[in-house]
Write a structure and sequence with these properties.
Oligomer: single chain
Strand content: 15-25%
Helix content: 25-40%
Bound molecules: zinc ion
Number of domains: 2
Strand order of the largest sheet: 2-9-5-4-3
CATH architecture of the largest domain: Alpha-Beta Barrel
Shape: elongated
């Protein structure tokens, strides 16, 4: 699943491409299960609501993409497992997983632009809401702090406030917004913290270290345009390159770079955790 660095890469790609442009056409190419329209729009369709509006700004909150449009509405996109925005030539034949296509009118001397939302697993969502309703929605109103904005002291306080397994906490979007399995496993590996350790039992020193590693890894991955282990790519269709830096995630059985022993993959909660049972001790 795309996590903070991958979503940030998509946001930057879209921002450079379509900010200031006007939506000239929206075409739904597949059944509309991926689309949610606020009841505030009455019977107007997704296409009709967006057509003619100008892109004001594109931002990220956690793993959510927020495309603000003229007329005080927002197109809120979540990529979930395999959602992608792709800038393509209009002549490229439709793929069966292209769910929606967008055309953006020319901007000065540039020609029009064509972007498709493609989603193989179809868990991704495109939602449209008036701005005044947006932050009341589940999935946005309950988001925790941004991992690149929270200070080290705030992070320690957050972890010590309520004791729970650190891996589960890092994946919980209401605890911290933007991490998923990749960056949770990697930052715990770097910090030598066992994924089952209880947050309340981890020392302040270790948590400061973890905070530093989370920010370091996220920044490094954004610079590498994210991690491509499955279908993820940027808006330009190019994969990220952070997968070559991974030390624990998806490397079960391979030797740990620190101790040489085999890395473990274990189901913790409902998710797989990748870690070194020798360097990351449970107690
Ligand atoms: Zn090790």
């Amino acid at each position: 699943m795309p996590e903070l660095p991958e979503v940030e890469t998509v946001v930057r790609g879209l921002r450079n491409l379509i900010t200031g442009r006007t939506v000239s056409r929206v075409t739904q190419c597949a059944p509309p299960s991926s689309i949610v329209v606020s009841p505030a729009f009455g019977r107007r369709t997704f296409e009709a609501i967006l057509r003619g509006r100008t892109i004001r700004s594109i931002t990220r909150r956690g793993k959510n993409i927020l495309i603000a449009l003229s007329g005080d509405i927002t197109l809120w996109a979540h990529l979930k497992m395999t959602g992608r925005f792709l800038h393509l030539d209009q002549s490229v034949p439709l793929d069966k997983h292209d769910l929606v296509s967008f055309d953006f009118a020319s901007n000065g001397s540039d020609s029009s632009l064509h972007v498709r939302f493609n989603d193989y697993r179809r868990f991704g969502r495109l939602r449209v809401y008036p701005d005044h309703e947006l932050w009341q929605q589940d999935g946005l109103r309950d988001l925790g702090p941004e991992p690149l904005e929270i200070t080290a002291e705030e992070f320690v306080e957050l972890c010590h406030r309520r004791s729970r397994q650190i891996k589960a906490a890092l994946l919980d979007q209401s605890f911290l917004a933007g991490l998923g399995n990749i960056y949770a496993d990697e930052s715990l590996y770097y910090s030598r913290i066992h994924p089952k350790r209880l947050t309340g039992s981890i020392s302040r020193k270790k948590l400061l270290e973890l905070h530093g590693h989370i920010q370091y890894l996220l920044r490094l991955s954004i610079d590498s345009m994210g991690t491509s282990v499955n279908t993820y790519s940027g808006v330009n269709g190019k994969p990220g390159s952070f997968q070559s830096y991974l030390k624990a995630y998806n490397r079960e059985g391979e030797p740990c770079e620190r101790c040489g022993k085999g890395l473990t993959r274990e189901k913790i909660g409902s998710r797989s955790a990748h870690y070194c049972r020798h360097c990351q001790r449970e107690r």
